[in-house]
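Subject: Re: docking follow-up (fe (ii) ion)

Dear J.,

Thanks for your patience while I sorted out the input files. As discussed at Tuesday's group meeting, I've set up the holo structure prediction with fe (ii) ion included as the bound ligand rather than trying to dock it afterwards. The sequence and the ligand SMILES I used are pasted below, so you can double-check that they match what you have on your end before we go further.
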Amino acid sequence: MPTALPPERPVPAPGPVDTSPISLTPAPGDDLDPIWKAVVPETRTRANDIHLPISLAYAERLCDSFPHADRLLVRVAIQLHDTGWGRVDEERILSEGFSGDWRKAEIRFEHERQGCAIAREVLPPLGYDDTFVQQVCDIIDGHDTRKEAYSLEDALVRDADRLWRFDPAGIALASGWFRMDPAAYSDRLETEIIPELLTAPAVAMATATLNRSRALLKTAVIR
Ligand SMILES: [Fe+2]
Ligand SMILES: [Fe+2]
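The structure tokens for the complex came back this morning:
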């Protein structure tokens, strides 16, 4: 069940906050493996096979910080949120999805719609009930194009969706998509993406990860 989102920004966390490198805490357990197996073809687009597992690992950490959140809802929603990219025209992803007013590009709405369609195809045969599937779709629908988060779970998915970009793997991939060098992209993470984060643990994780990535990639020098 979705949980009400407190009004404060960033939302303070009642639980622990882990800011160590994400590679130290891969998503545990194998209960989501049947879902992964069902969407392997959709993970081959737009580096979803890198983005989705890393963002799931961040989502698990955020749920540790907010133990009252519906953990399964957060985990399944982040796992499937971008699978819709696998069913849109790949040429248009780079031409429309990352340039101009890319947040409002029609292809962004299309990947959200397709992501919901994939959730409705994949989840019911694996035993997830209609109410749960609808809650997952409510988060997927608008995850990039809707301004506000509806619930705590929605906010945690949004933060996990952004956090992977602070990791060197995220900087490597996303800087290429936006045709920026790693140093310039790291600057953008600090000035544009950190202010978009909704929860205090996400801000702490993003800041610590960005500091490590900048040091590792020597962005102070290679610019
Ligand atoms: Fe997306
Ligand atoms: Fe995403």
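A couple of observations from a first look. The chain has one domain: 31-217. Residues 81-82, 111, 143-144 surround fe (ii) ion (ligand 1) (CB under 6 Å).

Let me know if you'd like me to rerun anything.

Best regards,
T.
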